[in-house]
């Protein structure tokens, strides 16, 4: 177990991080902070912008679907945050044997929620809750980071569903936050097969 913990710590550490200096070595004077990089698409994307996504760019389509639309000529990274909220339905009242036919108090049934984020026609992610029985509003959340280069307007859609519950009539929530360029177009981990 100790070996596994040490191996995991070594794998998760950054091998390129500077090593701490000995305590006897005085700390160097702090260098001035670099100037912030302007948040514009790289020169390889002339004519594109990286706009903020405002509430006016988003609308509730149904109680199960909300959509924001990025304008044409958008290039950049965005964080999409989605939330769906439902309240569990009470179970049908059943006769309680000890009270000679009086109805038992209603308790929530096993409610289930699912939420998904789509960028254009591409699914970014989906999550489903385990069954829950607590009363009151119950949120389910999903986030997705996207990098886009879009010539035409690009819809970002949140779809939400539930079972044995009542959806919030305001529909699922969506927030799209602009992220700064980091110079990486894509990165993906995989285990090579022999």
How would you describe what is shown here?
- It is a single chain.
- The protein has one helix at 2-12; strands at residues 58-62, 65-70, 74-88, 112-119, 122-128, 137-150, 154-163, 165-167, 173-179.
- The protein is 6% helix and 39% strand.
- The protein starts with a helix and ends in a 15-residue tail after the last strand.
- A hairpin with a 2-residue loop joins strand 1 and strand 2 (65-70).
- The chain has a domain at 63-90 and 108-180: Jelly Rolls (Sandwich), CATH 2.60.120.40.
- The strands form 2 sheets. A 5-stranded antiparallel beta sheet has the order 1-2-7-4-5, with no helix packed on it. Strands 3, 6, 8 and 9 form a 4-stranded antiparallel beta sheet that branches.
- The longest helix has 11 residues, at 2-12.
- The relative contact order is 0.24.
- With 194 residues, it is mainly β.
Write the layout of secondary structure elements.
Blueprint lengths: L1 H11 L45 E5 L2 E6 L3 E15 L23 E8 L2 E7 L8 E14 L3 E10 L1 E3 L5 E7 L15
Antiparallel strand pairs: 1-2, 2-7, 3-6, 3-8, 3-9, 4-5, 4-7
Notable characteristics:
mainly beta; Jelly Rolls; 5-stranded antiparallel beta sheet; 4-stranded antiparallel beta sheet; disordered N terminus
């Amino acid at each position: 177990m100790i070996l596994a913990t040490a191996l995991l710590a070594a794998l998760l550490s950054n091998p390129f991080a500077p090593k701490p200096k000995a305590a006897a070595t005085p700390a160097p004077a702090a260098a001035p902070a670099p100037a912030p990089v302007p948040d514009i698409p790289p020169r390889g994307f002339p004519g594109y912008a990286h706009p903020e996504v405002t509430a006016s760019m988003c609308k509730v389509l149904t109680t199960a679907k909300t959509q924001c639309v990025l304008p044409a000529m958008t290039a950049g990274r965005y964080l999409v945050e989605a939330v769906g909220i439902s309240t569990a339905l009470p179970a049908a009242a059943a006769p309680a044997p000890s009270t000679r036919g009086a109805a038992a108090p209603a308790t929530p049934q096993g409610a289930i929620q699912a939420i998904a984020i789509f960028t254009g026609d591409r699914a970014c992610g989906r999550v489903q809750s385990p069954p829950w029985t607590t009363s009151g509003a119950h949120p389910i959340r999903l986030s997705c980071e996207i990098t886009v280069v879009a010539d035409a307007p690009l819809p970002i859609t949140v779809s939400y569903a539930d079972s044995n519950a009542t959806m919030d009539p305001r529909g699922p929530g969506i927030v799209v936050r602009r992220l700064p360029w980091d110079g990486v177009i894509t990165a993906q981990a995989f285990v090579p097969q022999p």
